[in-house]
């Protein structure tokens, strides 16, 4: 038994580390000032694929769409144990919304000889949309299982998973091929192998067909330029505002019995408490 | 053409979810602006009390009843919603940003090549101008992004329809229109064997104790309360005040409360009369979930904690000292009445 697996990954700004100089004066986020990382749940997706590769055999192709610098996250995936990587990079892909992104990724997946399972992270920490996975599944006309945190059984014909449904979980079964989105509950991703990290240190994305990180542009995947990038996107950002969360009418209360009793009395008189 | 608004009505075990009532209410005010109608799309099997949804603002309910739709599955539900959209041609389609809505809406949007904005916290109708083109009556889709650090307004002027998922609990339900009945109209969709490939073997649903979203008083615990002794004091206070207890993400991750009690961007949005933040530093992700509280009381050891920027009442102190004082003060007050 062996499986052809594809993992879709995204390079994201580390939004959990937004420091002050990362905000431009107009209130927008200065993407350059934030460290770029691989989207955390995409690592969980890769980890699930690696576990299958170890247990049942198979090959893993990692695909990312992004600027040339996104080759860093692909190199990282190779160091974790992926077999091959593809970087989709082209100016005409820039400013894609999820619709254009899923179209571009789908065109790339269709170039691969075959696939059994496509893995995505549940959602990315910059947009939090969780949309690209289901949209790729729809475009490939395959089934999707989202919010997966446990793969219970896998055969050449079908997969059984546990997935979150908000107020609990369900166990469900689907034939292959299938697209899964994996949540951080699934696993703790392994660190990259030191040996591979040394070997791949200088690895670059290349147009050469034998490269470990393939560099593909719009022509390589035969995409329609009108469905890529900003042109292919149906959503537009009208306005972006900095979050200003402040209350102006405020009081400091001393931590004493008298002051707190006074406060509770006030809250009661204002019908705020019982 | 009428600019109707379609709301996907989410049912679980035959019960309409609160987020769908919130969406009907929002759709009603948007439709008033557009001079159009609200269409509720009810997908399931043996659903009841559909006409009564008129009270929340639905003018018409489109009912798709099929045994294969008893439990949610991506492909047959997406096919159903796509068919209904192509038939009824709504101008706007809204889903709850729930596990179901966030699984379903992108698949539908992909099929229709429509724009979709996830996790909106507010929706408005307004104009959008780009270059020389003015698009009137656009759905303004307002959502936090970048981990809650910015708020973006998104439009989809060339999309038919405009689609959005909306977070649970962010929209207050307007007063119901007592006695109003919606027209109910059946709509049917055929499925092939290929559409029904997912087999649900087992579902395990946790009974949720308590209701953070609807509570009048909510106590939020943060890492400053991450000690059994302090948590006990918090539960004592909650019992006295008849408050619900929730927590920040780090506290939930540390296992002190169950995950459905998480308050904030990735948890529940609350709108109580009083929110008491205990040992919560006040990360943006948490703050966006509590800003609809009428009053906020914060207790923290650190006088510079960002939670104090949004608090109406600030108490600087150790929870181990302040909580017993507060419990005593409240008990004393009860005695006097």
Description:
The complex is a heterodimer of chains A (274) and B (337). Chain A has six helices and 13 strands. In chain A, α3 crosses α4 (132-140). Chain A is globular, with a radius of gyration of 23 Å. Chain A has helices at residues 40-56, 71-80, 98-111, 132-140, 194-199, 257-269, and strands at residues 3-9, 11-13, 36-38, 58-65, 84-88, 117-121, 143-154, 158-164, 168-175, 178-182, 213-216, 236-242, 251-252. Chain A has 274 residues and is an alpha/beta fold. The mean pLDDT of chain A is 92. Chain B has 337 residues and is of the alpha/beta class. Helices cover 27% and strands 30% of the residues of chain B. Chain B has helices spanning 18-34, 74-88, 99-112, 228-241, 249-253, 284-287, 307-310, 319-336; strands at 5-9, 11-12, 15-16, 38-44, 60-65, 92-96, 116-120, 122-130, 133-145, 150-155, 162-166, 183-186, 199-205, 217-221, 244-247, 274-278, 295-300, 313-316. In chain B, α2 (74-88) packs across α3 and α4 runs parallel beside α8. At the A-B interface, α3, α4, β7, β9 and β12 of A face α2, α3, β7, β9 and β10 of B. β13 of chain A pairs parallel with β18 of chain B.
